[in-house]
Amino acid sequence: MDYLLVCSNCGINYKSDYKKQICNSCNGLLAVKYKQNINNRLIKNNEIHSFWDFEELLPKSNYKHYELGNTKLIKTDEKNLYFKLEIENPTRSFKDRGSVIEVAKAVEYGYDKIACASTGNMAYSIAYYAKLYGIKSKIFISNNANKDKVKYIRETHDADITKVDGDFNMALKIAEQYAEREHAFLAGDYCYRMEGQRTIAYELARQIEDVSNIIIPVGNATLLSGVLKAEKEMFDAKIIKKMPKIIGVEAERCAPLYKAFMNSSKVIYEKPNTKADAIAVGYPTFGEQSIELLKQYKGLFVAVSDQEMIKEQNEFYNNYGLIAEMAGVAAIAAFKKLKKKLKGKSIAIISGGNI
Ligand SMILES: Cc1ncc(COP(=O)(O)O)c(C=O)c1O
User: Fold this and answer.
1) Residue 290 CB–ligand 1 contact under 6 Å
2) Around Cβ 104, how many Cβ atoms within 10 Å?
3) What is the pTM of this model?
4) Which residues fall within 8 angstroms of residue 340, CB to CB, at 6 or more apart?
5) How far does residue 52's CA lie from ligand 1's centre (Å)?
6) Rounded to an integer, what distance in angstroms lies between the CA atom of residue 274 and that of residue 226?
7) Does the pLDDT at position 211 exceed 80?
8) What is the mean pLDDT of residues 197-224?
9) Are 305 and 330 in contact (CB under 8 A)?
């Protein structure tokens, strides 16, 4: 769809040929605003063919139609719990839905390199699409990232990876400086990625009716914000009858949004101390925004322990024969914690499977 970019801080508008995802005037985060409403026909078509069925609902670009998305929804052994298997994506996480947009945009704007900060999965996904689209990738990876993941990405997808002596937020600062200095497109937890994550909600609307709760692991809260945006679009267009409750899940040992939400306070940076590397983000990019949205739409944040995630990883393997990383099963741990209070159908987003 045709769109504008709007700064969520100062309100300035940019045309879609603006080549960044951050406001030039105040450094605020930009948001994509479409010029038309979403097309009901695209979502209500009951046969999913591919992710690209939703192309018309994404920011216009020159996409190459490699297969992704269209992931399975499975009924679980727990009453009223379903899994959305994002581990079925090409690089085994939901990240591909957003990376494909960022890489296509980088190419459209004439960049020959794309840079990002990552805890691991975004690096894999950006490197994968950069190689497919024929541009270089430069990744700044946090010190807690899994060594095997990093080795694999470097060897198979020709990524230039620098390991940063610090956490995700430190890697992010360095990636921003690099992109500015070396004329690379800065990818990451910004608006184009959020637009791609919306497609999870559209797929769900085709796969199941009357969802009451969607449980989503949270690092920078881009996945959560994208799903919420799409649910709101579909509710406004009368495609769904009610807004599902959105439940964000953090690791207890890195839970800045859960704490700010519970204490009704500002988000305070927290040094990550969890083994769930993919959600070890001390100061989430979309943190304040997502807290406001969850308050508005009656959602909530919950925190789960590393032990709870490890237990769910084992059960996920033993019961379903599937492999997921700790963050990937955080939503199952959250469901078990909350299940007495939850009514109706719940979806746990199984976000990633790279261990
Ligand atoms: C497997 C997995 N789950 C959840 C998340 C959190 O997503 P977001 O940063 O959009 O909140 C990430 C982010 O890296 C991830 O890799």
Assistant:
1) no
2) 20
3) 0.97
4) none
5) 22
6) 25
7) yes
8) 96
9) no
Rounded to whole angstroms, the Cα distance separating 19 from 165 reads 29
Residue with tokens 């940063």: 164
Query: Average pLDDT of the chain?
Result: 95
Alpha helices in the chain (DSSP H): 40-44, 96-108, 121-133, 147-157, 168-182, 191-207, 222-236, 256-263, 287-296, 306-320, 330-338
Q: Which two tokens stand for residue 104?
A: 């296509």
What's the CA-to-centroid distance between 224 and ligand 1, angstroms? 9
* DSSP-derived 3-state class of residue 171: helix
> Probe ligand 1: pick from 351, 354, 355, max atoms within 8 Å of CB?
351
Structure tokens at 129: 């699409």
CB 132 within 8 A of CB 66: yes
Tokens describing residue 99: 């990376």
CA of 277 to the centre of ligand 1 (A): 9
Residue keyed to tokens 């360095």: 174
Task: Calculate ∠ Cα 307-312-316, nearest 5°.
Answer: 155
